[in-house]
Amino acid sequence: MGYLNTKGVDQNTFDVIVIGSGISGGWAAKEFTEKGLNTLVLERGRDVKHQKDYPTTNKMPWEFEHRGQLTRQLIEENPVVSKCYAFREDALHFFVKDKEHPYVQDKPFDWIRGYQVGGKSLLWARQTQRWSEYDFEGPARDGFAVDWPIRYKDLAPWYSYVEKFAGISGNKDGLDILPDGEFLPPMEMNCVEDYFSKKMASSYGNRPVIIGRAAHITAPQQIHLDQGRAQCQNRNLCQRGCPFGGYFSSNSSTIPWAMKTGKLTLKPNSVVHSVIYDDAKQKATGVRVIDAVSKQATEYFAKVIFVNAAALNTNLILLNSTSSRFPNGLGNDNGLLGKYVAFHNYRARVSAVHEGHLDKNSSGGRRPNSGYIPRFRNVKKQETVFLRGYAAGFGASRYNQGAEGWGEELKKGLLNPKPGPWYVGSHMMGETIPKESGQVSLDASNKDEWGIPLLHVNVDYDDNDEKMVKDYLEQLTEMFTVAGFKNIETVDSKQAPGLDIHEMGGVRMGHDPKTSLLNKWNQLHHCKNVFVTDGACMTSTATQNPSLTYMALTARAADYAFKALKTGDL
Amino acid sequence: MDRRQVIRHFLVVGAGLAFMPSCVYKDGKVSIQLQSIQINPDQESFLKQLADAIIPPTDTPGAAELGSHLFALKMVDDCFEKQEQDKFMTGLKKLQGKEPNPAALMSAAEQEKDEEPLAFMKAFRRLVIQGYTQSEYVMTNLLPYQLVPGKYYGCVPVDSTTSKS
Ligand SMILES: Cc1cc2nc3c(=O)[nH]c(=O)nc-3n(C[C@H](O)[C@H](O)[C@H](O)COP(=O)(O)OP(=O)(O)OC[C@H]3O[C@@H](n4cnc5c(N)ncnc54)[C@H](O)[C@@H]3O)c2cc1C
Ligand code: SF4
Questions:
Q1: Which chain A residue has the Cα nearest residue B62?
Q2: Domain assignment of residue A483, yes or no
Q3: Chain B residue closest in CA terms to A219
Q4: A19: closest CA of chain B, how far (Å)
């Protein structure tokens, strides 16, 4: 580490430090600043200001040199991130390029990252479902991982709390597997999605097909207008950043909100190297930061530290936070830090053609959402040869037919497009079982430009995942057949873990300090003023897109930390 | 603005052709800078004629006027794999000089099972169509693209969605 900046300790002292400004860090910043605490958010990437720093947001299709497509050179230089569907000409600038931040794949793992103010909240697909009781009780019922120290009732009020502010559109479907939230009006299903939903309801009873619940403002409430956000206009160009603030991102929502309180200090280009532990005080006192540009080291101090660097980077920071008390990483007495990392299995897809409903189409906006099939396997009891189950996306759409011929005939065809048949498609989102072998660790010798050890990722599918892929393909094929869809095609992409972008665990929650790292309030068992509320804290993965749960856990933990600070417990 | 005026406006401003370093044809020079593939003025002129034969000018501009052949070259240059590029170029070389009649060239290539000309014709057709339909002119005047479309209607009769003048 370079020269240590010894600016007055006072000047570098805050009530709370939040590491990372993505979905979870943004929520921590909002909660603490609203409660009046001086809060420092340290973000390793550059600043991205809402509206101002969305350079492509109002570009027309023809303004992109390659009409959105990636060049050969970009793909060659970025074998990992170029696999992400959203890494396109219009949103390149919000993704980490492979060369910029290397890591070591002990097994293939596509680590997709966004290093900037807002993190991946600018890029996410905004699907937001609550967990249910069946998800929290999973590990205890099925005997894997450890028991979650919380249940649905502990998180339910916090789901409500974050949903109201973030703005979640959805339909009240009344499903116990996917509890309803504080919904703004749902987006519409199209005719074929609606047809499929009704067909499944009459054929199965327990396989509902619903419209996705998504973090889009379909009808702005006062709380959204107060944030300066407006109604979603169905542009479906969200990954560029939305000028209307139509979807939830840290940039459009939590960060400016926190800024307005006057209590937020946001420091971009600040790479957190490690958390400082004071042996005498028996707690963490602050963090070491390397300036991303100058590489100069600085220390910041606070009573409470929230680690929200996104799951794997949170593991990295804690593993790198060594002291004589914690030689193996902060809070890591049991040696489990970095272990039981899991993810979502997105390998399989099914597609088909629907020959009916040719007199109907969708029109107007480009709906930034699709249908959703909640988990229907092993919900109330174990029924299959594999543990747990999968949720699935479901969507139907009609594309214009290609025009035939040459010359004037072709031109006429192109200028008078006719809709082709309906295509239907589904993709799986499988729960994976966290295992001790699913692990991240630090390289013993190789460091990055900022003097931080490279991360090794050693995470893989197992037999349970293989069985689940098979079942998903069989069941969706059956469901599509029942619906009368034709030309059913199944794909197992065998894509590596990571591309789901739902990596979780490594710093799991649990009752027992011997088998977990965090308690039920997301505090490190052995270093109570350090909290982890991003994906790293997840004991199991369920099938829901995870970010809404990170938001709720963060708001809940921040509330607890605030109260503990007031009573002197922290 | 009526259609003619729009066209004139378009020609004057030349907007939307941002990828063209120079739209002026100088003797012995091609009008686009390429990195990996090389083309000569004869080939460019062949591609231009072929583009116009694929989508001809009528009361609205054809593909060449909208720069679709140059867009196609840009895509081949930047986005095609080396192998696809080679096929495209070999195909082009085999066809250049022939009459730029796409239907005839295509059926000849199909009959002779001549791999490269076939690959060239398929790729060029696709890219010319893309360059044309995703040009500023077409997306502004003929099939307007809505950047901010607003309300989504999930289920409407087809007739109400396809009535394009
Ligand atoms: C294309 C795409 C689609 C997705 N779709 C969905 C979806 O539909 N639903 C869903 O729930 N989730 C989705 N996700 C995942 C979602 O984006 C993440 O779960 C979410 O952003 C995680 O929030 P976070 O706060 O943990 O991390 P992030 O939002 O990634 O923020 C972490 C921040 O920490 C910073 N940081 C990292 N290391 C350090 C350090 N050492 N020092 C300082 N700062 C640091 C990073 O730069 C970053 O800004 C998607 C992601 C992508 C990319
Ligand atoms: S779909 Fe909605 S949120 Fe996304 S860019 Fe458009 S207006 Fe914004």
A1: A411
A2: no
A3: B151
A4: 35
Residue B154 C-alpha to ligand 1 middle, in angstroms? 31
CA A501, A503, A504 angle in degrees (round to 5)?
Answer: 145
> Using a 6 Å cutoff on CB, does residue A187 contact ligand 2?
no
ipTM of the complex: 0.91
Domain that holds residue A256: 4-170+212-343+432-460+497-567
In a domain, A413, yes or no: no
- Which of A160, A161, A197 has the alpha carbon at shortest distance from A179? A160
Tell me whether residue A406 is in a domain.
no
Question: What CA–CA distance (Å, rounded) separates A433 from A467?
Answer: 13
Domain count across chain A: 1
Å from CA of A481 to ligand 2 middle: 34
CATH number at residue A98: 3.50.50.60
In chain A, positions 154-193, which contact chain B (CB-CB < 8 Å)? Answer: 187-191, 193
Ligand 1 centroid–CA A523 distance in Å is 20
**Residue among B16, B148, B152 minimizing CB distance to A62:** B16
Tokens of B89: 């170029």
pTM of the model: 0.94
Please list the pLDDT of chain A residue by residue as tens digits (570 residues): 444 555 568 899 999 999 999 999 999 999 999 999 999 999 999 999 999 999 999 999 999 999 999 999 999 999 999 999 999 999 999 999 999 999 999 999 999 999 999 999 999 999 999 999 999 999 999 999 999 999 999 999 999 999 999 999 999 999 999 999 999 999 999 999 999 999 999 999 999 999 999 999 999 999 999 999 999 999 999 999 999 999 999 999 999 999 999 999 999 999 999 999 999 999 999 999 999 999 999 999 999 999 999 999 999 999 999 999 999 999 999 999 999 999 999 999 999 999 999 999 999 999 999 999 999 999 999 999 999 999 999 999 999 988 999 999 999 999 999 999 999 999 999 999 999 999 999 999 999 999 999 999 999 999 999 999 999 999 999 999 999 999 999 999 999 999 999 999 999 999 999 999 999 999 999 999 999 999 999 999 999 999 999 999 999 999 999 999 999 999
CB contacts, 8 Å: A60 with chain B: 136, 139, 145, 147
Which segments of A342-382 does DSSP mark as H helices, in order?
none
**Atom 2 of ligand 2, residue of closest alpha carbon:** A232
Per-domain residue ranges of chain B: 3-160
Query: What are the start-end ranges of the H helices in A210-299?
Result: 222-226, 254-260
Q: How far apart are CA B136 and CA B153, in angstroms?
A: 26
CA of residue A6 relative to chain centroid, distance: 37
Chain B's closest residue to A61, CA to CA, is: B134
Domain presence at residue A380: no
Q: Does residue A51 line the site of ligand 2, with CB under 6 A?
A: no
Give buried/exposed letters for A8-27 (b at 16+ CB in 10 A, else e): eeeebbbbbbbbbbbbbbbb
